[in-house]
Amino acid sequence: MKRFCSWGCVLSPFIFAAIFYAGSFWMEHIWYENGKEFICPSNLKQISLAIFMYSQDYDNKLPPTIISDETVGWANALQPYLKSYPLFQCPIENNPLQKTPQPNRPGFTDYWMNSNVAGLEDKKVISPEQLIILGDGDGGSPQSTASYAINHIPISWLKLVGSPAVRHRSGANYAFADGHVKWLEPDRVSQLPSSEKHAVFTFMNR
Question: What is the DSSP string of 77-111?
Fold first, then answer.
């Protein structure tokens, strides 16, 4: 006796395939979005290494925020060591990379340098594992030229949803004077100097 397959039997392989591909697309999207989280730590790591290379070439001093004039800041002074403008861009930050990067225009870098350590001699750095030198910034702000620098987390960033201080899973990425990069929530970052008794992640060297 012949058995006939119902429409459900005929369509089930196609339904399964549609669900499979939809699930695959969703997972690929999740992997892509999660992958963005690793780009900023990698960028900051490479930029911090370039800072140390710069220091070796310039009397063991970290770069000043402004090198010679307003068109030459710390970010483009590192280009001989990096040879990459996209390294200064956060993939989650909404402002696109300039077609022709101009160091004196906003959006040149999405990362800031700690102005407290600008031009500082290596030997004067205290508690390098706690001292912040770079971090996630606002590439859309007027300050985000090649000389973009701050010495504290702006209060407005603590109140603004999606600000640089909380852009990455309610926190931000910071590069330290010993070369490591760490994700921190904003309440773990201080403007007070670190000490043996009270170690903090800080903008302040002394």
Answer: HTHHHH--SGGG--SSSSSPPPSS--TTSTTS-SE
Cα separation, 159 vs 166, whole angstroms: 10
Residue positions counted in the chain: 206
What are the tens digits of pLDDT across the range 149-173? 999 999 889 888 888 999 888 999 9
Count of CA atoms in the C-beta half-sphere (13 A) of 177: 28
- Tens of pLDDT, residue by residue over 6-53, are 545 544 554 544 554 444 433 333 333 444 578 999 999 999 999 999
Strand order from edge to edge, sheet including 132-136: 149-150, 111-114, 132-136, 172-176, 181-184
Helix, strand, coil percentages, rounded to 5, for the chain: 35, 15, 50
Both structure tokens of 157: 């960033």
With 0-12 CB in 10 A as exposed, 13-18 as middle and 19+ as buried, what is 159? exposed
Nearest partner of 66 among 54, 58, 75, 79, judged by Cα:
75
